Amino acid sequence: MASVADTLSPALPPQRRLRPAISPVAWLAGPALLLFVVFFVLPFGVMALLSLLSGNPVQNPNVYPTTRHYARFLGDELYYDALWATLRIGLITTFFSLLIGYPLAHWMARMKSRLGHALLLMAVIAPMLTGIVVRTFAWMTILQDKGVINTTLAALGLIDGPLPLMYNEFGTIVALVHIYVPFMVLTLTGVIGRIDERLEQAARNLGASRLRAFAEVTLPLSLPGILAGSLLVFALAISAYVTPFLMGGTNVLTLPMLIYQQVSASFNLGFAGALGVILLAVSLVVVIAYNHVLARFSGQEGLT
Amino acid sequence: MTHFHHLTRRGALKAGAGATAAAIVGAPAILHAQTATLKITTWGGKWGEVMKGEVLPAFEKEFKCTVSADQAFPYVPKLQASPKSNPVYDVLHTNSNEQWNCVELGLVEAKLDHKKIPNIADVYPYAISDKIVGVSIFTSAIGLGYRTDKGLKKPTSWKDLADPALAGMRGGYIIPVNSLGQAHLMMLGKVYGKGFTDLDAAYKALEALKPIKLVDFTGQMEKMLLSGEVSMGVIHDSGIYRYDGQNQPIDFAIPSEGVLALEQVLNVTPGSKVKELAYAYINYMLRPDVQKKLSETVWYSPSNRKVNLDAKYDARLFNTEAKVAQLIQPDWKWYNARKEEIDLKVTRLLKG
Q1: Nearest CA in chain A to B169
Q2: ipTM of the complex, rounded to two decimals
Q3: Each residue of B20-32: b (16+ CB within 10 Å) or e?
């Protein structure tokens, strides 16, 4: 581009000509960048700012900087427990979504029949067309004490009292996995579909078993998809509010639940902001660690 | 014609100035009346249907304005995020506990101007008592809802919820986010301890209710009772009576220790640009015909003494001096001042 600029404007002063020109294609990223700034950077900035102030400056001009919201978090084990529960639920949900999603995505990606592929794709996408609240309520009718499973088992005389399927982390994770598996499948299908099948065939021709060919060829090549899908599901699971609230009962307390309580019932935007910043910071650490672990398994080129 | 002979230049100027002044003074009122928008909050569900279908259109027609009604809870954080001089609502409708939060935050008037609400003269004393910020337009009564098909005796005391036979089948609320749960906690202090402020006794009694199923809002408790997921739970009378005629095996019990008032409170925001209209709306909501309509839609007890309810509502709702005397109004100012500490304590108690 610089040489084109030289040819077109030889009279420009040297320092002007040395400036790198912005590719016209880069301008296309402008709207996306603007959206990112307006819908992420600004709200996050406001949240981070509120977490360091004694009140809301829109309402009260006499607010002052403070770290008391962070000190409050550090001063009570209940908040650590909530953070750990949030991460634990996020990690387990991601693990099971991957476990269920990978074979399904692999099957979809390798399917020869177009009709079969379309039907599978519809089956994966269909649940996403109903709201999370509806899907969570559906799980409630299945897992609650008077739900389908417990009532059936009781009617068959197999159980005396209801099995603890809901009002705990188990029920929460079951519902979350169901809700987020499509995100994993859709992300993985695209990546696995782009892996050249002949690589796997070559490995088989060289004497590798089907399992070894998968483990040493297909799986490493699909790591970028695993990374993207896992990050997506993990991010969605740790920020889930409705499902843990409805499925968890008294036994589940996550940071998004605490944040909602602070905003909606305690009207403490500062503490809610601090909880949000902490959740984001800890999640970033987990994500970076996960990225490093996967990079080590795949070699650097695997994740590019 | 004589008029024109006496019309001097000075006189004409005076008359013109007078007319202009009258126009300046009068015009905004007229313009306001024609174009003003009143921003309010209101509930959804059946209440919202009647409000949006009948009550609000009639108000708009009578007061030549438009009403913008927000049904997306929670309202207070939205009000909190808007500038005080240009609030997102003119009239805030919430339960009583949140109005106390709002007055602390300077988001609503500490005291309404009763002269601008003529119908306030007809309300029961509880509606404007010192436990209320604003005015309570309706109340429901928090007591015990129970299944009638589980062989349970009709509860007569709050202590009946602790019956060991109800382990895992009793229902309560996530106390940090639900005012029924908060009111119930205060009631536990009264029933098991020295009074509504006896938190130690309340915590102990609350722990004894484990295992208990907790929900975040009353609609969810209604579903739990209807599906048999809980056999007895803390709920307001409206949440049970609204299924009247649907042949549901649920009923409402008034414990002997009393029921707690769940007031529907209206208040004006100090920065409202249409305060007169805001007051007119509150007065309108207290009119006997409007009160009757809404009472008989969602089984809320009207605040206005002059409301004549149909027989079946009259028999159950709190609409006489003797009946409203049974209502206990929680001291929300006291509770809100301790909310943070209580939230932590009860979350820890009920978790795991």
Answers
A1: A145
A2: 0.80
A3: eeeeeeeeeeeee
